[in-house]
Amino acid sequence: RQDEDDPPIAIAAAIAKIQARYNGVATDGELIRDRVVFVASAGNDASCRPNWPASFENVIGVGALGSNGPAWFSNYGPWVNACAPGVDVVSTFFDLGDKACHDGEDFDGWAKWSGTSFSGPIVAATIAWEWMYRDNQGLPGDVAAWLLDRPGHFRYPGLGTVVTTP
User: Fold this and answer.
1) CA-to-CA distance for 59 and 2, rounded, in angstroms?
2) DSSP 8-state assignment for residue 2
3) Is-contact 42 124, C-beta < 8 A?
4) Could you give the CA distance from residue 24 to residue 1 in angstroms, rounded to a whole number?
5) pLDDT tens-place string over residues 31-49
6) Which secondary-structure segment (H or E) carries 62?
């Protein structure tokens, strides 16, 4: 159960199944260095309590940054590996009001949002961009490890490596 800090068995099994399917049996137990990279938002409870799936060892847990540093709401802790912008992020918004067309052809909307759910995709996209920039050479997990472990990148205690869009 989440409130007891125990990892959910079903999510752990799903990650292990994906790891086995795409990577064979990992000898070091770290999926981050293999072909599949899992990235998950850390949560918005301003807590250091583990949050799943972000706190699994083979998942990159991502916290949120504001314009002046860590976002007040972002979860944090040794299980958070990276952080990215997550306050007042402008994104698309599908308005299902009276005049909206439900087939998506009449989309017209933007909204300003905050949360680690906006930080996670920035980290995932940066890893993907870096891998593509390298002409898809090597493993995406190696790129992720390089991005998070590279000397010279700024790190916040409890939030990990700062990642911004390329």
Assistant:
1) 17
2) G
3) no
4) 29
5) 445 678 899 999 999 999 9
6) strand 59-66
